[in-house]
Amino acid sequence: MTESDHTGSPSEPEATPLLAPREGVPPLLTSAAEIARAAERLAAGEGPFAIDAERASGFRYSNRAYLVQIRRAGAGTVLIDPVNHGGDPVATLAPVAEVLATDEWVLHAADQDLPCLAELGMRPPKLYDTELAGRLAGHDKVNLAAEVQRLLGLQLTKGHGAADWSKRPLPPEWLNYAALDVEVLLELREAIAKVLAEQGKTEWAAQEFEYLRTLEPQPTRRDRWRRTSGIHKVRDRRALAAVRELWLVRDQIAQRRDIAPGRILPDSAIIEAALADPDTVEKLTALPVFGGPRQRRLARVWLDALARARTTDDPPEIHEPSNGPPPASRWQRRKPEAAARLEAARAELSELSQQISVPAENILTPEIVRRLCWDWQPRPTLDTTAAAVEEFLRRAGARPWQRELTVPRLARALSAEHAPADSADA
């Protein structure tokens, strides 16, 4: 869980501080025998499982879990070390995974933790996401601290969510923080479920949770190096090639050492080197960052990458090839009829968002709306328009509750009366 999840707000009402787990901080379980006994203990409990995982984002290359926290009524909380037990993580944690497969999981921001838990062989048979539930309930702040304070009257203090959870031994105060992540998660689930029931949104939430539970991992972006911070400063194909080569070498080193790439070489240094294009050790080490002892040891590695960029036969294009619509800011010039459709669709969804108190991006993702409006071919009647919108949204993965609410509105936005007068000639 991230640091921000435990950060409250001065505008929130006073609440009772929640400083330590009610049963004390449980021990960190590190051996196969301890983990097997924890599985037996969890099996003896009843009801859903409150689950969280801690990673080492910003410190490690991998997104693996370095701590797993589980709480169940009648069983209390267990803290499991999934990496330092001397065996295969999936095999060692198999008894726990088997128990977890028997009932609902309750997580906060489940999309962050489900992938690393799946790596451990743990997959939920049913899911409840208290953060997503808060969004559907129309809450303006949905981090864990805000929701706990709003619905349970308890205050979670700042902690160690952004810490290096790969560190061993884990300090006692970190384990206290981790145990508190699941301490009241089951109570929070019941409280937010009541809110959704009062708003008539229980079925909406159920559809969202099941979609999230069964969502397949998305393919990795092809040109990940284009995410390098500051790349907008690079407007030359050869310099872009340098960014690409430096990024790829850094990524290989980071993966091999299991260190976050930015700790090998910051993005700012990659951009600096790509723009300066040094061809000697002296020129390279004169640049910011590269003059340090660690970078001096890797100087030849970086220079070789820059040399490959100068001689490559396929320097990258300035703009990444896209299989989707261009940025909406360019639509008015390139395709004004699509810009008009998008404006009308956004207006309809904004009005709907206000009516049902659900953020527009949770009603339909902006990407789906852009694709619909960019590629749209006008239909002769409102009914045929609605049928086509329904089919498009279904194929895009929109849930039944979303289609029921949005199809009539989007059909109205996309109907001929909203198109520019000259659209028939376009």
Automatic annotation (TrEMBL):
Keywords: Exonuclease, Hydrolase, Nuclease
GO terms classed as biological process: nucleobase-containing compound metabolic process
GO-annotated molecular function: 3'-5' exonuclease activity; nucleic acid binding; nucleotide binding
Pfam families hit by this protein: DNA_pol_A_exo1, DNA_pol_A_exoN, HRDC
UniProt keyword Nuclease present: yes
Record-linked Gene3D superfamilies: HRDC domain (1.10.150.80), Ribonuclease H-like superfamily/Ribonuclease H (3.30.420.10)
Protein name: 3'-5' exonuclease family protein
InterPro entries associated with the record: 3'-5'_exonuclease_dom, Exo_C, HRDC-like_sf, HRDC_dom, HRDC_dom_sf, RNase_D-like, RNaseH-like_sf, RNaseH_sf
Organism: Mycolicibacterium hassiacum (strain DSM 44199 / CIP 105218 / JCM 12690 / 3849) (Mycobacterium hassiacum)
The keyword Hydrolase appears for this protein: yes
